[in-house]
Amino acid sequence: MAGRTVVITGAARGVGAALARELAGRGARIALIGHEGAALEAVANTLPTPSLALEADVTDADALRDAARAVRGRLGRASVVVANAGIAQAGPFETADLGSWRRVVDVNLTGSAHTAAVFQQDLLLTRGYFLQIASTAALTGMPLMSAYCAAKAGAEAFAHALRAETAHRGMAVGIAYLHWIGTDMIDQPDQVPALREVRTLLPPPARHVSAAHKAATRLARAVEDRRAAVYVPPWVRVIQAGRVAWPPLVARRARLRFGDTGERTIGQTGPLGPGGAADPPPAR
Known about the structure:
This protein is α/β, with parallel strands linked by helices and 284 residues long. A seven-stranded parallel sheet has the order 3-2-1-4-5-6-9, with helices on both faces. It is globular.
């Protein structure tokens, strides 16, 4: 990675910030993009290699194009782009605010597509690597997480399609399947009723929350190896292998869990974590 330019969206905190530190430690120049300027600058100031903090909303294609020009001018063409920016909310779809629901999809899916679009020519010229941060939510269809599941499933499908379009031109595309990583988005999940209910539907080993810095180490190796898929933690590949079986199994467990009271007794979370709280409100 020495001397390579890496772009990471959603890099103000969590996995994005941890991955920035990990790749900078391996010699990469880092461009951090997000909508929390001060937090991005704080992360950039900790990096040992040249870095650039750029404030831009990934759902704003014009702002991203400006950011891409700044990256080229200051750090050079990107060899790696990590579409990490994401927000989530939890609660029953029946009572969801559809503007907030759409915002989750826009950030996680449309934002990833915008990110790929503005940097694709750079990655084609450098024969680079685009890493889409997805989730086990793309594989299982968890109740109370409909917007996040839909967005991550869409982002997974988008990455597969992009890989098929660009492989013959030397650009590689990978998908990272993350499961319950200890970031601000799900800090202390058992204190949030909707997240607590989601976790109870999982077998006990799958309720474990992994550390962000350990996830970043695994992601950095995937970047170096240009992997088509990376699973964090590694056992998540079991969910991938049995993905056809998981949705009906989850539905059955949810039917037993919610019983007579149902999920309607569970409230909406609103945007999860400080990153979600800092996200611009959805257009009405």
